[in-house]
Specification:
By secondary structure, the protein is mostly beta strands. About 5% of the residues lie in helices and about 50% in strands.
Length: about 850
């Protein structure tokens, strides 16, 4: 292990020497830069739009330090996707960044729903944060407003000016849940001048999209802007059941209205309201192997599992005194093994779209009270509602038994609303830049879940029927009905008399929970630039004090209404409260006007909470990160090339890991239930190197390349749900050791300059990675190419321009597995009090299941600007 650790140290040392090597030739020519450049961390350019003429790279303005600064002079590790970059890659939602556009940013869908995204940066990647009392480790912000939940993150993007990916802990200026970094989306503001654009397009898989953006002339010092978006794609994997939707389907609609009011000089007030509805189905889970360990396969004699060709019963368990042969259940004849991506499921199941609705209102006030100070206020209320309908597993994750129910329809109904208020004072005095502020955040979330089995096998697995979701109701629902009826006034559920929320509910409620959170913080960043050192040294000290309080209850478990009845069984509950301080120190040095070096120390944390899938709401504490980083940002070749380097070491303590268990205790209130529990398992080590190169060798041509190396070591821990079991190795998900991306962009005027031909091609690589915290199974390595060719800005009048474009995602139609589980390929091990193996249960063995990446998509679109 010491050799591995030393290797990482050598790599980081090499990165530092490379950074200094880039600066060394110019150190003798040190010149002063503009006094007061704000400092806060390191920087990386992901996607500049080099449209300045002469082949030079243009400056990019970012707000990572809560003020507008030049990206190359802002010592923060940050990648930027501009409007042009989003357009070239045909990015309609954040999930389109899952191909690895930014190597250190990892994006994946939640297993049960396409719209709930898992977002990670630099190895800080959550596993299952889609609950009432859990958070991610990367903060997502829209115009400075933090989004409390990852549900609904895959909604359609409105008119985005840029996406800033801030890497490493951002606990000082952005607060909790930014231990891996922050993803900041910045919308285009109203201009006050009449204008706009409309884009329409069609593609394969029945896709179409339209977006319209309209700026109205200002009146009474008020400027208005309207945005509307429609995005649709038919499923890429079809469902044989008539009336069901299929998988990898989406239909997104939304609108946004923004107003900018400037009543007096120095005061700008921005107001916005947005609403988005995303109907979607998950990625399909298919069986890619059967019995990979070659256990004996039994046969059914009626309902008894026997050795093939005999009447000898098979034993499902090896234990003391058990002399029966051991075998596993056969696969249903209708279920196939598909190592390649399927286009049609083997078995039809009810599958209707999940529905995610996000909406919110915000106000952003900025008032320059004096040349040295600007006061700001960001106030926002947001809400999320998600109705999850997930039947993506079908029979692919469950063994066959004659005349048995199968296909778990995972239903979840979550509601969340939040309010936040942030106050800032931002300004500069000679040799000193400052940002100070206060923040308040509160949220409340509720969720209930049901998991009916939707299908019923016949006696030999050659046919099936669709079941009713209502316990005790033997009538099958109509095959033309794609889903389950959630409420029926004729039902008489015992929950209806005790929990008003479930009045008239017919479903068997697996769990129901509610949680509230309150967060208070004070923060500040001070950057000092000594004049005595020719204004080339910038020292930033930052800190944030946070008080975080969260509490909640789990008031329904397996339809037990007595959990919510006063005077009977008390509901499971938890309460967390922490107070902490996160410091940051950044030393930046301008070796020349074009070479900037930095060194940074910072901390951040991810809030604690409780896991409502534990069916006991067991609480867990926060996890925290300490980060050490060095890097450089360099412009050279007369601003035709940029090279940004960063090397970092992150140590995470109190790492939150999830364990699961299937409860077989006959006296337990959670009998027959899959339980998940989260603990703070220990320390994780993460090390990495990042490099970004942008070159504009000739006018109109830009070449970009990015690389991220990420090494991690997670702890081992004992599963708290299986006392006596030995410790097992844990894994960090969706974090490849090596990831890289590259792009070619070329544009050339045509005719008399009345139009431009633009060509874009990008390639994105990621090595294999883990997708489950408890499984050593890895996904496939991936390489995805995307492209776009357009005839842009065709002048049809003095004010109107038209663009025609052809785009393609996954150009080579590459197929790879991005999520893979072998949980159903091996026996279930049980352990005694001293850790000895007591029995091995073979009852659930089937094979590996997997999710594949989306297939190739392409289309044509036209844009009219006016």
């Amino acid at each position: 292990m010491s050799k591995v650790t030393h290797a990482r140290t050598y790599l980081l040392t090499g990165a530092a020497l490379l950074a200094l090597g880039g600066a060394a030739p110019a150190l003798a020519q040190t010149q002063s830069t503009t006094a007061g450049d704000p400092a806060a961390a390191p920087s990386v350019v992901a996607d500049p739009d080099p449209d300045t003429g002469g082949g030079q790279l243009q400056d990019i303005v970012v707000t990572a330090t809560r003020r507008e600064t030049n990206l190359q002079k802002t010592p923060i590790s940050i990648s930027v996707l501009t409007t042009q970059g989003l357009q070239d890659r045909h990015v309609l939602s954040l999930f389109n960044l899952a191909d690895g556009t930014i190597p250190s940013l990892r994006v994946a869908t939640f297993e049960a729903r396409q719209s709930a995204l898992t977002i990670g940066i630099r190895g800080i990647v959550p596993y299952d944060q889609n609950q009432t009392a859990r958070d991610g480790g990367v903060g997502v912000y829209i115009d400075g407003v933090a989004l409390g939940k990852t549900q609904g993150l895959n909604a359609a993007l409105f008119d985005i000016e840029r996406i800033e990916v801030l890497k490493g802990p951002q606990g000082t200026l952005f607060g909790r849940n930014t231990e891996g970094g922050a993803l900041s989306l910045v919308s285009k503001a109203p201009t006050g001048q009449f204008g706009g654009r409309v884009t329409g397009g069609v593609g394969n898989y029945g896709s179409y999209d339209t977006d319209a953006h309209l700026d109205l002339p200002s009146f009474a010092n008020i400027a208005l802007k309207l945005d509307g978006v429609i995005q649709h794609q038919d499923p890429t994997v079809k469902d044989p059941l008539t009336g069901s939707t299929g998988w990898n389907y989406y239909d997104r609609k939304g609108g946004r209205i923004a107003a900018r009011w400037k009543p007096v000089d120095g005061l700008t007030a921005d107001f916005a309201y947005d609403y988005a509805k995303d109907e979607n189905t998950p990625q399909y889970s298919q069986l890619i192997s059967y019995n990979p360990n070659n256990y004996t396969v039994g046969a059914y004699n009626g309902l008894s599992l026997v050795l093939p060709g005999t009447t000898t019963p098979c034993g499902g368990t090896i234990a003391a005194g058990n002399t029966k042969p051991v075998c596993i259940a056969p696969k249903a004849p209708l279920v196939g093994v598909h190592p390649d991506r399927q286009t049609v499921a083997d078995v039809g199941v009810p599958q209707q779209p999940s529905v995610d609705i996000t909406h919110g209102v915000s106000s952003n006030l900025r008032y320059s009270v004096a040349p040295a100070v600007e006061l700001r206020s960001i106030t926002a209320w947001r809400g999320v509602s998600t109705d999850q309908w997930d039947n993506s597993g079908g029979p692919e994750r469950q063994t066959f038994t004659p005349s048995s129910a199968f296909s778990r329809y995972s239903l979840s109904f979550l509601r969340q609303h939040q309010f936040s208020q942030e106050l800032q004072a931002v300004g500069s005095v000679p040799q000193l830049d400052y940002v100070v502020g206060a923040y308040y955040y509160t949220e409340h979330a509720t969720e209930y879940a049901a998991t009916p089995l939707s299908n019923l096998w016949n006696t030999n697995g050659t046919a099936y029927t669709i079941r009713s979701p209502i316990p005790g109701n033997a009538n099958a629902i109509s095959s033309s009905n794609s889903g389950y009826q959630q409420y029926d006034p004729s039902c008489n559920n015992t929950l209806a008399t005790t929990v008003p929320q479930f009045a008239n509910s017919c479903q068997f409620i697996t769990r129901a929970s509610q949680a509230s959170d309150h967060n208070y913080s004070l923060f500040g960043n001070l950057t000092f630039t000594p004049a005595a050192l020719d204004d080339v040294l910038h020292v930033t000290l930052g800190g944030r004090w946070t008080k975080d309080k969260r509490h909640g209850t789990l008031y329904v478990v397996n339809n037990r209404a007595d959990l919510a009845t006063p005077g009977t069984v008390s509901p499971f509950g938890f309460r967390n409260s922490i107070s902490r301080f996160d410091p940051m120190v950044n030393v930046a040095f301008d070796a020349t006007p074009d070479v900037h070096l930095y060194a940074k120390y910072a901390t951040g944390f991810r809030a604690g909470g409780a896991n409502d899938r534990s069916l006991a709401f067991n609480a867990f504490g926060p996890e925290a990160v300490k980060s050490y980083e060095i890097g450089s940002k360099m412009d050279f070749w007369n601003h035709k090339a940029r090279l940004n380097l960063a090397g970092y070491i992150m140590n995470r303590s109190g790492t939150q890991f999830d364990f699961d268990y299937y409860d077989t205790n006959g006296s337990s209130p959670t009998l027959g239930t899959h339980i998940e529990q989260t603990i703070n398992a220990g320390k994780s080590k993460i090390r990495g190197i990042e490099a970004d190169l942008t070159v504009a060798p000739v006018d109109g041509l830009t070449l970009t390349g990015s690389y991220a190396y990420t090494y991690w070591k997670a702890p081992s821990a004992v599963n708290p749900l299986t006392p006596g079991a030995p410790a097992q190795q844990l894994y960090i998900v969706y974090t490849p050791r090596n990831a890289a991306s590259g792009a070619i962009d070329y544009k050339v005027p045509v005719g008399n300059g009345d139009a431009t031909v633009r060509f874009h091609l990008d390639g994105n690589y990621a090595s294999s990675q883990y997708s489950f915290q408890l499984e050593p199974t890895k996904t496939d390595a991936s390489f995805i190419m995307n492209g776009r060719l357009s005839l842009a800005d065709i002048a049809v009048s003095d004010h109107n321009k038209v663009t025609f474009a052809f785009w393609v995602r996954n150009l080579l139609d590459t197929t790879y597995i991005y999520r893979r589980s072998s949980a159903n390929s091996s026996p279930v091990y049980n352990y005694g009090a001293n850790g000895q193996l007591v029995s091995t249960n073979y009852g659930g063995i089937l094979g590996d299941y997997a999710n594949f990446n989306p297939p190739r998509t392409y289309g044509l679109e036209a844009t009219v600007r006016f």
